[in-house]
Amino acid sequence: MQGQEYEIGLTVGDNRSDIFTFVISPESQIRKWEYVYIKAGETNLLGRIEDLLSKSDLLNDRMDYESVKKYTTSNIKDNVDICVVKIIGAVKDGIISRSRYLIRPGQPVFRATKEMLESIFKFDDQRSLEIGYLADQPDVKIFANINGLRRHLSIIAQTGAGKSHTAGVLMEELLKKGASIIVLDPHADYVLMKNSDKAIYRDNIKVFRTPMSTGRYTAKLGKVDEFTIKFQDLNDEEVREIMGIHENFVNQSKIVKDVMEKLTGRKDVDEFIQKSEQIDTEKRIAARIKYLKKIKAIFGDKTTDVSEYLAPSRMSVIDLSGLDQSLANYFAYKVISQAYDAKVTGSFEYPVFLFIEEAHNFAPPMKVKGSGVSQMLYDTIKKIAAEGRKFGIFLVIITQRPGKIDQDVLSQCNSQIILRITNPSDQKAILESSENISESLMSDLPSLDVGEAIIVGEIVKMPVIAKIRQRETEEGGLDVDIVEMLQKARMEAEKRNDPRAIVENVKKLME
Ligand SMILES: Nc1ncnc2c1ncn2[C@@H]1O[C@H](COP(=O)(O)OP(=O)(O)OP(=O)(O)O)[C@@H](O)[C@H]1O
């Protein structure tokens, strides 16, 4: 092992093979979550500081302020500083194995060196995705193992803690490795990644928008690709689904079928609406026709083909903004099922990474077997979660509601990046879905800062608390600076109420 060794304490008290305590040497400064090691023959037993205690018999909690003050001004100190360390494993040449060593009192404890930590957190260049650095040691970079994504990943955090930022970092790293990425983006949070000076992002990211998109960031983005459906390509069931008619509504479904049979002209949505209004004299599907009129902008001259959004070294952001959930489900189903088919049939040979933002809306727990698109979407996501790795299609599930997502899907994600979460029921859902995360790691979740994450599972050799690195691409959905926006609003109001402006306006009205 290279690097200078710093002895920072000596083990004391009763120790187990997985936990030990040590007393800190007076000159050492120690922080929670730091890594330390003790020697066991040829190997080093690496551990993480879980707790810090400073004890004093003299200055006890029965003393009043004045008495304590007297002691401290006479410089009398009897405090003992103790660290509790959880053993991670025995480390040799960057490989961690289970530790079964006995830890005796009096053994020297060393601070883990940068070289030692780097050897653990790095993989060879082909496999390494640089996602951040140690939360308390910014000079130690943290990498994720790309092969760890074979068993899927979930990114979980409460709102504003840094989920989209983290997912964006991962997309950047995957693109650098030549990955094919599809992003289901309900709020157009990722579209700005294309808006980059760097060729890798500018040339390889494509944004697809449905004609109903909210058009967020259009001024910055310029022209993007359209994701449309050609009405003529739809069958009866698909039209019924898009109109939001449940298959159990037999009469309404029959009307849709009858109308479809009667289409003779352009067979487009306008003809469908016109014929429906003629046939549906009892107005059984009037409300659904009204809805179809509202959403008919989604139909275009062609159905976007999978080959447009699935290509080697291409990231396709599918902007689903502006769609209600059932329509978003329809588009999500189209995209996911076609990508899955392309992998299963072998027509697309490269690995595909499927990022699902707001995944709780696309794969909620299905207590009773549903029907239609939402059930088909759920089944496909579940299939990918269970079997995707066999075919080379991998999920990255992003959610702020781990309790509101199907637990089978969540538990198939073998790696987790978990940012700040304070809600106990969300914490419970994470604990139940992951065997990688311990109660003690869980207890650190509420104290994480924005952008700090606990990373566990196959993508890392050992659980780690990391700060996710800065983004290279532009972020959407940044936090609004309320002070700045209110200042702008006040200036607008001042302009509006300026007597000269009022006179000008009156003059204009008189003209
Ligand atoms: N690692 C980081 N370094 C610096 N800034 C960060 C980091 N992570 C997040 N942020 C900032 O924190 C804010 C919230 O991040 P982000 O939008 O990713 O959160 P979120 O969890 O996706 O929130 P929401 O659920 O509302 O979409 C953003 O302004 C983002 O730039």
From TrEMBL:
Residues 129-336 form the Helicase HerA central domain. It catalyses: ATP + H2O = ADP + phosphate + H(+); Couples ATP hydrolysis with the unwinding of duplex DNA by translocating in the 3'-5' direction. It comes from the Archaea. GO terms for molecular function: 3'-5' DNA helicase activity; 5'-3' DNA helicase activity. Residues 8-93 form the Helicase HerA barrel domain. Signal peptide: none annotated. Belongs to the HerA family. This is Uncharacterized protein. It comes from Thermoplasma volcanium (strain ATCC 51530 / DSM 4299 / JCM 9571 / NBRC 15438 / GSS1).
